[in-house]
Amino acid sequence: MPLRLVALACLLAIALSVPALLSRVAAERQVDTLDVALVDSALRTWEDARDVGDQRALATRLTDAGVRTVVVGMVSVSEHLQSGALVAVVGSGRRGRGPVPKELAGPGPATVLRGRTGDQVFARVVDGLRREFGDRVTVATRPSPAGPVPYVRVDGTKDVSGVSLGYDVDRLRRLVAVGFRVVVALPTAVESRPSWLRREVDRAVRLTGSTTVLALGPLPFADRPADAAAFAEFLAARRLDLAVPDLGPTPGAALYAARLPGRIVRAHVVPVTRQSVRDLDRLVVRGHRAGKERGVSLLVVRPSPALSPARATDGVSELASRTRAELPAGLRAGPPTAMPAVEPGLASQLAAFGAALLVLAVAGAWLVGTPVPFPTVLKRRASSAGPSLEWRALPRGAVAVVWAAVGLIGVGALVSGRLVLWQLVTLAVAVAGASLGVLVALGMSEPPAPQRLPRRTLAAYGLGVLVATTTGLVVAALGSRSVMLVGAVPFLGVKVLLLAPPLVVAVVGALRVGSGTPRWTVDLAAVARRVRPHHVLAALAVLGAAGYYLVRSGNSGIAPGPELWLRDALDQALYVRPRFKEAFLGFPALVVALAGRWTTLPRWMWGAVAAVGTASLVDTFAHFHMPLALELLRSAYSVVIGLVVGSLIVWWWRGRKKDADVSDGAVRSPAEVSPS
Predict the structure, then answer these.
(1) CB atoms < 10 A from the CB of 606, how many?
(2) Can you tell me the distance from the alpha carbon of 188 to that of 257, in angstroms, rounded to the nearest whole number?
(3) What pLDDT score does 2 carry?
């Protein structure tokens, strides 16, 4: 396929993606606030301590530092057990001793709790237990000098500590009175009917004026779609925003996000521990990174109970103060902001789908002629003593069938609205475009004329980057819808995207021959006889590197301490850091592959490493929660740094080979050095 047509196809695909991308950018620009919130459980612990001042003085100190929001959850049975208002006599981590009323001493698994004489807490606990367990709850009393001691038995369960009892109304009033904003935290497990939760949330938000509810765990009724839909409709009717954690999809988030477009806030939990309080710089940088790169608008600070109240108060105050004072460009302090609804119209979806088909068509045209196994994979030939593999050039018809199949999947996604079909099309485009970027660049630079090597290398590098960036923009356009932008539905097949392009480039580069050789045969027995131990060790090393490459990818991937430190430093210096596997591995390898005359390894090996960079670049645009402007900036850093690093490697390698030629007694020109 002519290279000019490849470049024109890229420009056309970008133009088709623009409508969807513009609606996305307009929404992303409105999410520009960052709020620091403190969990109420920590605040209550500090208020009970004597070394942090009274409630109003503590509130003044925190609000002056920038902690102006408190996350308040429901009171549970566990909290009353910890405070001593209840004692578990049977079950629920039993601590108390003594007899129970005869009415409650029956057989079978059960929990028995003892309350305090004249305490109103017991009545609220009984109401909550009856709401959850119905007629399995029995109440009785025992006489004592101070008055009747209340007991409650719950049959059929040995632990009721996690049962939610509702919001503490008096606590909510006190927080508002001292000047805090309130974010209402939803319970992680709700067994009762949605009507009870709606009443509790409605009462809490009316008392506090809150406009945001937070789910730090699974969303209510995540396993009951009808109840979840009803509760989502309640949130929409009350004009309440729903905050969900940013790292990983929360169970039930996709269902709620689909029913609450324009009402989803991304939150990030900041744990403050003994170790992290000594290194607040890292917490500040990571909080800013969450706001810049992941669309987070609410930082939830959760101090460790192991910290003393005085130390925890000091650490949280300094963290909040620095987070607000050192806000990066594009962010401002303020209440959390929900991502506006982004629902592209049919015309925008068709345009993005057309761009996807265009990228797939170019990739398919480029792969025509690639060797593939003949349908009779293993067979015995008269001229061979053992089984063999026969390969033939990939025909246009096979490529057209695959292209049409992906097209039908896309049409099905448009007609049915099934998001998983749309995700399959997005994955196919991502893999094809990331592979095509390297293959096109290698094809353009072969054979390189010695006197035109630098110019041709730069042109090939630029074309490869253009193809990969175009693919990334098409992927970003396909993912420009609310449920993906808020992280409720992540990109499908991240591991496949990161692994498939290097494999495709390695296979195509190693097996593709000139057009004059449409088929050939590989004797498997002969190949097996040539395998040596070092071949096996090399294969294991490659598999180990691929495994580490996959394990360290993603938000939960592992990374060594020095790399984490370098990431933080680059974030501060460059606003957004380049991805290491692009800037220092993939794109330098692409430069070396394009100038392969100075290396001793086959160009396809360098190309396979280069595909790690193009796959990572496309994956950057598949981080749909990241603002598009930052995706472009991060990719630009990687492309430029990769070009510089790769050029330095080629320059060093070229000088080394020249020195070797001189030591052999004869200086050879570049034209005399055999390309690999």
Answers:
(1) 26
(2) 17
(3) 78
Q: Residue 467 in contact with residue 498, Cβ under 8 Å?
A: no
Report the distance separating Cα 294 and Cα 634, nearest Å. 14
Give the residue among 489, 484, 488, 443 at the shortest CA–CA distance from 464. 443
In whole angstroms, what is the distance from residue 585 CA to residue 592 CA? Answer: 11
In whole angstroms, how large is the CA radius of gyration of the chain? 31
Nearest to residue 185, comparing CAs of 233, 140, 219? 219
In angstroms, rounded to a whole number, what is the distance separating the alpha carbons of residues 601 and 598? Answer: 9
**Residues 494 and 426: beta-carbon distance below 8 Å:** no
Task: Give the pair of three-digit tokens for residue 419.
Answer: 């998001």
DSSP states of 322-336 as a string? Answer: HHHHTPPTT-EESS-
Give the 3-state secondary structure of residue 140.
Answer: strand
Handedness of CA 559, 244, 419, 468 (dihedral sign): negative
Torsion sign (Cα): 269, 275, 280, 281? negative
Residues of the chain with pLDDT under 70: 1, 49-53, 91-98, 369-392, 445-453, 511-532, 534-536, 538-540, 542-560, 596-601, 657-676
- pLDDT reported for residue 572: 86
Tens-place pLDDT, residues 534-569: 656 766 676 666 666 666 665 545 666 777 788 888
Specify the DSSP class assigned to residue 108: S
Q: Which long-range contacts (CB under 8 A, 24 or more apart) does 491-496 make?
A: 491/423, 491/426, 491/427, 491/619, 491/622, 491/623, 491/624, 492/420, 492/423, 492/424, 492/426, 492/427, 493/423, 493/427, 493/430, 494/553, 494/554, 494/619, 494/622, 495/550, 495/553, 496/427, 496/431
CB-CB contact of 141 with 148 (8 Å): yes
- Encoding tokens for residue 356? 């996807």
Q: How far apart are the first and last CA of the chain?
A: 24
Q: Look up the pTM and report it.
A: 0.85
**pLDDT tens-digit profile of 156-207?**
888 888 888 889 888 999 999 988 999 999 987 777 778 889 999 999 999 9
Kindly tell me the number of DSSP H helices and DSSP E strands found in the chain.
Answer: 24, 17
Residue 570 CA to residue 578 CA, distance in Å, equals 8
Decide: 166 and 200 in contact? Cβ < 8 Å.
yes
Q: State which H helix or E strand residue 400 sits in.
A: helix 396-416
Q: What is the DSSP string of 605-645?
A: HHHHHHHHHHHHHHHHHT-TTS-HHHHHHHHHHHHHHHHHH
What is each CA distance from 4 to 455, 472, 577, 588, 656, in whole angstroms? 17, 20, 33, 24, 36
Cα 173 to its chain centre, rounded Å, is 37
DSSP secondary structure letters along 147-182: SPEEEEEEET-S--TT-EEE--HHHHHHHHHTT-EE
Q: What is the DSSP letter of 98?
A: S
**Residue found under tokens 């209340």:** 150
